[in-house]
Amino acid sequence: QVRLVESGGGLVQAGGSLRLSCAASGSGFSINVMGWYRQAPGKQRDLVAAFMRGGSPNYADSVKGRFTISRDNAKPTVYLQMNSLKPEDTALYYCNTIADTAYGRREYWGQGTQVTVAS
After folding, report:
1. Considering only CA atoms, which of 1, 65, 76 is closest in space to residue 35?
2. Distance (Å, rounded) from C-alpha 67 to C-alpha 95?
3. Could you give phi then psi for residue 89, rounded to 5 degrees?
4. Distance between CA 78 and CA 93 in Å, rounded?
5. H/E element holding 27?
6. pLDDT tens, 83-112?
7. Closest CA to 6 of 90, 92, 98, 86
8. Nearest alpha carbon to residue 33 among 63, 55, 48
9. 33 and 85 in contact (C-beta within 8 Å)?
10. 54 by DSSP, 3-state: which?
11. 3-state class of 37 per DSSP?
């Protein structure tokens, strides 16, 4: 089992910044993909940014140039630095990972952290 714990959400004014963190814990797993999704009320859950195994990060077009994903493989933890926030960035942000475990490849989600951008 892999457990994802997110932190760093909150309320910010438009143009402000927030930094999200997601720490993965458990035993006997290897991360393939790790990143962030978001879901606004009444909308589907969409990819924000993610690291693919051995590859460069992928970003949604709507956040390119404003958000930066980074990672600490030793922990393992991913971070999402969000700058120049807009009201349309308001959503519940979920950490996601696809990991190889003793039971095969599995997908895990965090509990979500709320980001609210006031205009």
Report:
1. 76
2. 15
3. -85, -5
4. 13
5. none
6. 999 999 999 999 999 999 999 999 999 999
7. 92
8. 55
9. no
10. coil
11. strand
